Amino acid sequence: MSADADQTDFQARLTAVADAVEVTLDRLLAPDTLPNEVTRPPRLLEAMRYSTLGGGKRLRPFLLVETARLFGVEGVGPLRAGAALEMIHCYSLVHDDLPAMDDDDLRRGRPTAHKAFDEATAILSGDALLTYAFDVTAGEQTHPDPGVRAALVLALARASGLGGMAGGQALDLEAERRTEPHTAAFVLQMQSMKTGALLLYAVEAGAILGGASPSQREALMHYGMALGAAFQVADDILDAESDTETLGKAAGKDAGRNKATLVAALGLDAAKARRDLLAREAAEALTATGLGARTAILAEAARFTVDRKS
Amino acid sequence: MSADADQTDFQARLTAVADAVEVTLDRLLAPDTLPNEVTRPPRLLEAMRYSTLGGGKRLRPFLLVETARLFGVEGVGPLRAGAALEMIHCYSLVHDDLPAMDDDDLRRGRPTAHKAFDEATAILSGDALLTYAFDVTAGEQTHPDPGVRAALVLALARASGLGGMAGGQALDLEAERRTEPHTAAFVLQMQSMKTGALLLYAVEAGAILGGASPSQREALMHYGMALGAAFQVADDILDAESDTETLGKAAGKDAGRNKATLVAALGLDAAKARRDLLAREAAEALTATGLGARTAILAEAARFTVDRKS
């Protein structure tokens, strides 16, 4: 198969998973209450839907779903775990955009949640999305084995919490308040938490759902770590080179803010070299899974991660 | 045993559990990282500790620990589940106090988190506490059976989320923006979500950990619902009658804000009658557990809930 055909297959698969995740999120965020819920307040639910539906590449759920599929595990389980992961990602964007944080008005080309609703509703909708992600992950439909569900909850919480994504955002904000330049070591640590941890969880969750062997899981985690790092340096490069219209969010803000980025720490050329190296490292890590050609879709995902334009 | 002796036993037990919960929280919020955590950012961790340690009656963990103890389940498991529950309670206070929400400067007689730190750190520390609560609940040390841990996660998420606590806070804030008086039916629904759901979870979690039979669980849930309702109407009465110094937070704010309270909806006398009725209902529900005198401590807890001065 030619590289072009691979690319077409990948895009079709990415779209198919994004559509299935959208349907899953739409159903999970319906007005109907679940057992033990009193009522779902309409405005809060609307804000939760606003920030999760109709947007995004769904890269994280895609990685989760495709990793589980390597082991023949498909359908509602991985889609629910992927939708929960996307809720965590979306909640983090809502809170990061708040006036007290990055103070952004634009996200995916639309007003941010606190602009479209109000600040209190934005905070609460983020809290509720974060909480609901654990509800969905722990639910029986996600996997029949409660041991698998408990393992997913534990991994998701650790990736999202003070030693992962939330901690990474705290470090990022502290960095912005400093005036001296940031070391590459600091930027790498911060990014491995802020964006890397959740991308790694996507692959880890797929491995947990799929019942990967320890060596397969190790290889997949290696892939996930390289991919996560590649993703973030690609993001830094995009911010430095792109414009607001293409990006769908404010571009070029990093330089003006003493933001901790690899472009600032290493320079643009070194950042690009690192990005390409990491994408190759991610693809190569897949061979150690022993799963052969089936992993081609994840290798494509690594290429997509560094080639994307927004 | 006289009522006075009961009271002394209850206070001693309440203090003992509060001390054990404090130690558990202190250990969980240590600087040491857990597997898969990159690092725990010191300032974020400090803010998490500030909002959870050294304060509060620990009523929710107490109810959880004592309910589990009815079935002979004691030690690290219930303490971890109780500490996780307390993290959820504390995160909700941190976010509720934010300028965009209730805009409070004082909590438990100390500056609120966004005053002691800053708004971004307060938001993130709340997010991280909420997330960590699920980490702790899902962890192996909480219970050897992953089915029990998954059930706890599911119940905790549902009690805290859009159909529970977070949804209740959203309704409460919306109510404040209206100018017409609130119906008792609305106030009851909002309160059953905002404060009731988490108190009910405390009892539910104890029943799950203890392996209560379906009928015992039903009786305990009845107790938990009555106790939760009694707690909140007692809170409304305290706000109407107490002063800021005794309460450790701003008092008398409800009336000035068109806050949805039962005192406003029913009048002070009817609210007090309801409070006392609910406390009795809670105590009586315990007889249906068939556990006899062992439940006396929970009956005391119901009495304490309505008799407290802050």
UniProtKB/TrEMBL annotation, chains A, B:
GO terms for cellular component: cytoplasm. Belongs to the FPP/GGPP synthase family. Keywords: Isoprene biosynthesis, Magnesium, Metal-binding, Transferase. It comes from Lichenifustis flavocetrariae. Its cofactor is Mg(2+). One of its GO terms (molecular function) is prenyltransferase activity. One of its GO terms (biological process) is terpenoid biosynthetic process. The lineage of its organism: Bacteria, Pseudomonadati, Pseudomonadota, Alphaproteobacteria, Hyphomicrobiales. The keyword Mitochondrion does not apply. The keyword Transferase applies. SUPFAM superfamilies: Terpenoid synthases. CDD domains: Trans_IPPS_HT. InterPro entries: Isoprenoid_synthase_dom_sf, Polyprenyl_synt, Polyprenyl_synt_CS, Prenyl_diphosphate_synthase. Pfam families: polyprenyl_synt (PF00348). This is Probable farnesyl diphosphate synthase.
